[in-house]
Amino acid sequence: MARSRRSWAQLLLLLLAGPGACAASPADDGAGPGGRGPRGRARGDSSADEAVPRHDSSYGTFAGEFYDLRYLSEEGYPFPTAPPVDPFAKIKVDDCGKTKGCFRYGKPGCNAETCDYFLSYRMIGADVEFELSADTDGWVAVGFSSDKKMGGDDVMACVHDDNGRVRIQHFYNVGQWAKEIQRNPARDEEGVFENNRVTCRFKRPVNVPRDETIVDLHLSWYYLFAWGPAIQGSITRHDIDSPPTSERVVSIYKYEDIFMPSAAYQTFSSPFCLLLIVALTFYLLMGTP
Question: Which domain of life is it from (predicted)?
Fold first, then answer.
């Protein structure tokens, strides 16, 4: 009975002492017969110790090594989680009059990056792709009108907001006021604000269900060109009092490259100036009496 009590007392002391109190196996502590270490290696045998590499097989070490190898670059920074955004493809003016129609307003010989206003259009399947660009930090737009006057027009505008984004919006001209329409026919929208210019590209279907605010582009319309400043992402009055318009109705099935000189380059094309030049030339040729 006393012997049984002593056995229970020894077992209790062993449990209270914890795992460290347990004696190591002779095969683990190198205290085996003959003073040999694990697997019969003699104590102090450095060559044998080097022959068997030691590895830390803990999960934490494995996870850390896997993260360093899989998710870190050579510089030690995490790889990007999302691919870079594709840059805005520049508008090609070499295709004007060939595979797309273009309108240019500004200095003679200007292009999509230097004109005061630029617009192009082309058919892509059941859609029409429009490209707009203007020398402004606010908005650029095109209106589709049954006449050359503002009022009752379907308008597509590219608006530069305070966050630096360019959004495609749909408006309807009520007299001299542009009212934003929630139903927006634009798709595949993209835009950019660079070098103090608002540039955008979008598509809209040729045919739409009957709607007072959205015209069918398979019909011919006068095009109204406008641009101006924006306040907190909202368009304000256009830059010039009389924005340019197309001289005649435009068909999306006919590609032309039309240039319209801005006011600064219209001096010698006005009737009065032409008459003055003719009179001066006649005076110089005839001489004084």
Answer: Eukaryota
Q: How far is CA 146 from CA 119, 221, 248, in A?
A: 19, 6, 10
**245 or 289, greater pLDDT:** 245
Using CB atoms within 10 Å of the CB of residue 150, give its burial: 0 to 12 exposed, 13 to 18 middle, 19+ buried.
buried
Q: Give the β-pairing of 154-160 and 139-145.
A: antiparallel
26/33 Cα distance (integer angstroms): 8
Write the pLDDT tens digit of every residue in 90-103: 999 999 999 999 99
Q: What is the identity of the amino acid at 35?
A: G
Tokens representing 115 are 């004109």
Q: How far apart are CA 92 and CA 205, in angstroms?
A: 22
Residue type, 162: D
Q: Name the residue among 191, 133, 198, 145 with its Cα closest to residue 172.
A: 145
Tokens of 235: 């368009």
Angle subtended at Cα 213 by Cα 211 and Cα 216, rounded to the nearest 5 degrees: 65
Q: CA–CA separation, 116 vs 106, rounded Å?
A: 5
From the list 218, 249, 239, the residue with the least C-alpha distance to 145 is 249
